[in-house]
Specification:
Blueprint lengths: L13 H13 L3 H14 L4 H13 L3 H14 L6 H13 L2 H14 L6 H38 L3 H14 L5 H12 L3 H14 L4 H13 L3 H12 L6 H13 L3 H11 L6 H13 L3 H14 L4 H16 L13 H18 L2 H10 L1 H13 L2 H12 L4 H13 L5 H15 L5 H16 L1
């Protein structure tokens, strides 16, 4: 009797094709090898190793630009990137003669993989580029940089004609530089030449299509010439801009606020606060919610700010109250202004109050401390901001308040202090006196002391 054999299904994984690709690569069968690495990527598109190997094959075949594209795509889209990708990018850009990007990628490799297999080669490559290539270019680059700075200073002084002449020279010398082009577009706009401003901004986007400054500026320019279709299209481009710093976000918010585009600001910040966890951005997000009549959401965000920085509640409470008024009577609601200095303005208003508190009789200070919760926020804020002389006066006041909150405030200051000084020492003396007297804060003080001793042992 014959037994029919059973067919065992063999699953060909990405790893299977990768091994075949490596074997063919070692035998210099590059075309076949590349096909297997491509097959591996199609099966496991999140595995960086397959992209790295494919880029290596393409480089061996002389297709260096394709190799660069493969690596850039992997770095851009994958959550986990092999450090060797940066080293390979450095080699590729060196072969293409783009030494600036070559050096950047070698430095990036050294940063993420300081003990990597190619660290010696990367360091030597950086040294070679600096010594043999950039040394001749350094004086020229310095000259261009100084000219660009001069143009920016002239722009800031409202000397638009002079700024335009300088910046036009800069972009002739540095054709792919976006910063002087952005400044030039603003100089054109502010001098009344909107057409040239638009052309300059478009040139920036030709070089870098996601440039946030150029996209926002162009929206402003289109609004000026009353081009509705181009303006709406440009607002969509603003949403897709790349923001590398908080400064770029603030610049965009500033321009969009002048255009009364609160919904666009809201859409941007809802995404950006996740990556740039800055209080000022949370604050502006709350304003955008308020200005688009989403008052409850605005209150939620201002409460987030209070949770992150409790001593800032003196500033956020007024905004919460504004949104509460609007919830009760939406018809009488008014828009809040986007102002980067908003917190500074509030601090200025209460500086006089804190000076009065410091010089106040202890009995009067204690009464205000007990009856006005905002005073506690103000005192806590200035406890970190004052110079030491005033801090010591403030600490003396807190030392004579029969209140756990005051001692907790001093204890927190000691825990947050970066180094020992006369202020932290004074706080510890007061805390220890309270501890000996059987103060209720003893557990917190012990935690603080243990933490400091741990730091010393480390």
């Amino acid at each position: 009797m014959k037994h029919k054999g059973r067919i065992v299904k063999f699953e060909r994984t990405g790893r299977f094709y990768c091994k075949l690709g490596i074997k063919l690569l070692n035998n210099k069968r590059f075309m076949e090898s590349a096909k297997y690495f491509e097959k591996a990527i199609s099966i496991e598109p999140d595995n960086c190793e397959y992209y790295f190997n494919l880029s290596g094959v393409l480089a061996e075949m002389g297709s260096v630009k394709e190799s660069v594209n493969i690596l850039e795509n992997a770095i851009k889209k994958l959550n986990s990137v092999m450090p060797e990708c940066y080293f390979a990018m450095g080699c590729n850009y060196f072969d293409l003669g783009n030494f600036k990007k070559s050096k950047y990628n070698f430095e990036k490799y050294c940063e993420v993989e300081p003990n990597g297999s190619f660290i010696i080669e990367a360091v030597e490559a950086i040294k070679f580029i600096d010594t043999n290539i950039f040394s001749d270019q350094s004086s020229r680059q310095l000259k261009i940089k100084n000219m660009a700075n001069k143009g920016k200073k002239l722009l800031d002084k409202y000397e638009f004609s002079k700024a335009i002449k300088v910046l036009e020279k800069v972009i002739k010398l540095e054709t792919e530089s976006t910063v002087p082009r952005n400044n030039l577009s603003l100089a054109y706009y502010l001098s009344g030449d909107v057409g040239s401003a638009i052309n300059a901004a478009r040139e920036v986007l030709r070089i870098d299509e996601s440039n946030s400054y150029a996209n926002c500026n162009l929206a402003l320019f289109y609004r000026t010439i009353d081009s509705s279709d181009l303006y709406k299209k440009q607002l969509r481009a603003v949403k897709n801009s790349r923001f590398d710093s908080v400064e770029e976000i603030l610049n965009s918010v500033d321009i969009l606020s002048k255009l009364s585009e609160d919904k666009v600001i809201r859409s941007l910040l809802e995404k950006l606060v996740k990556d740039h966890d800055e209080i000022i951005l949370w604050h502006f997000l709350a304003i955008s919610y308020h200005n688009t009549s989403r008052f409850s959401k605005a209150m939620e965000v201002w409460n987030i700010i209070k949770a992150k920085l409790p001593h800032m509640s003196i500033f956020t409470d007024c905004f919460v109250m504004e949104s509460m008024k609007s919830i009760k009577n939406p018809l009488n609601s008014s828009n809040n202004n986007y102002d980067i200095k908003v917190f500074v303005d509030y601090i200025t208003r209460i500086e006089e109050l804190i000076e009065v508190l410091i010089d106040m009789d202890q009995g009067e200070f204690n009464k205000i401390w007990e009856t006005n919760e905002h005073v506690r926020d103000i005192v806590n804020y200035f406890l970190y901001k004052f110079e030491n002389k005033k801090k010591l006066k403030l600490i003396d006041k807190l030392a004579n308040v029969e209140d756990d909150d005051a001692i907790h405030m001093l204890n927190t200051y000691v825990r947050n202090a970066e180094k020992r000084d006369e202020v932290s020492n004074k706080c510890e003396e007061i805390i220890m006196r309270k501890r000996v007297a059987g103060d209720a804060m003893v557990n917190i003080v012990e935690f603080s002391t243990d933490k400091r001793n741990t730091k010393k042992r480390q």
